[in-house]
Design goal:
Length: about 300
């Protein structure tokens, strides 16, 4: 990877890592479901001005929008609103790699490798340790559970993304932008049903500069810029070389949350985090490491 593209990778890591602090700031002034609807409204309005509609049937864009956009982020935003620390959420959400693997095996009938099974077991132990800490520290059990559910939704969305690619369509930034027209609909409907008309009206009337910064960061930074740069790297390098960059996102998320949100973690949670990260590393690099040492063992 060239120096320029390595720098682009760092930009993506910081954009997506800092995104969790932005979400935490946003839910202080907006109901989480309303914030999600406004985010995707901005993505659709601004992105459609510059990015053409992809040659993907609407039914596939709708399925992508429902799983990866609506389900993932409605659950994640609600998790942070209900007591999930932003830094810890950035790590737990990466368990999507495990769920993506499981769904790929059962839905797409893909083969599973030994290192992937080991990685799932390791990550599962780490998540159990984090989850069993319960209400200790600043984490709530409902917040942790919703974050896991968001990771499951992300995993389903990844499978939908793979199916779209397998059918010969290009699942790139165009899909992210144009599926937002669909994603904002369930966000606004559930916001009206769950959060209520009064909360929505009050929030819209009290929008301030911080609310605007949050929404534009989520829409332009995390969505349009982040996914555009991600698509650029995936078109120039193998997925196996680009995908490991996401492992650094929780590091940025936890460090920035510690500095800006004063979040702290218990010893049990730190141990669980280390185990999960090790499991994710095994999933990404395990097969490569085995191939490297196999000739020496033989």
């Amino acid at each position: 990877m060239s120096l320029k593209d390595a720098f682009i990778g760092l930009i993506i890591i910081f954009i997506w890592g800092f995104n969790f602090v932005i979400i935490a700031w946003g839910i202080e002034s907006m109901p989480p479901l309303l914030m999600g609807g406004l985010r995707f409204l901005l993505v659709a309005l601004l992105g459609s001005l510059f990015i053409r509609k992809p040659d993907i049937p609407w039914r596939w864009m709708a399925l992508y929008a429902f799983t990866l956009c609506f389900c993932q982020f409605s659950l994640l935003f609600s998790a942070l609103a209900l007591g999930m620390p932003a830094g810890l959420a950035s790590l737990v959400l990466q368990s999507q790699a495990v769920f993506t693997l499981l769904f790929s095996v059962f839905i797409l009938k893909e083969q599973i490798k030994t290192n992937q099974v080991v990685a799932m077991l390791i990550a599962g132990v780490g998540l159990y340790i984090i989850g069993s800490s319960g209400q200790t520290g600043s984490m709530t059990l409902i917040g942790f559970t919703l974050t896991i559910a968001a990771a499951i939704a992300w995993g389903l969305g990844n499978v939908v993304n793979r199916v779209i690619n397998q059918r010969g369509y290009r699942a790139n930034i165009g899909l992210v932008v144009w599926s937002s027209w669909v994603a904002m609909v369930p966000f606004f409907l559930t916001s009206y049903w769950v959060e209520g008309e009064q909360a929505i009206t009050q929030s819209l009337n009290n929008l301030n500069w911080l609310s605007a910064v949050v929404l534009f960061y989520l829409a332009i930074g995390a969505s349009i810029i982040g996914y555009s740069l991600w698509s650029y790297l995936l078109t120039h390098y193998p997925a196996g070389q680009v995908a490991p960059l996401t492992l650094a996102v929780p590091i940025v998320g936890m460090v920035s949350a510690g500095f800006l949100l004063d979040e702290t973690m218990t010893t049990q949670q730190v141990i669980g985090i280390c185990i999960v990260m090790f499991g994710l590393l095994v999933n990404v690099f395990g097969a490569r490491a085995y191939r490297a040492i196999k000739p020496k063992v033989a």
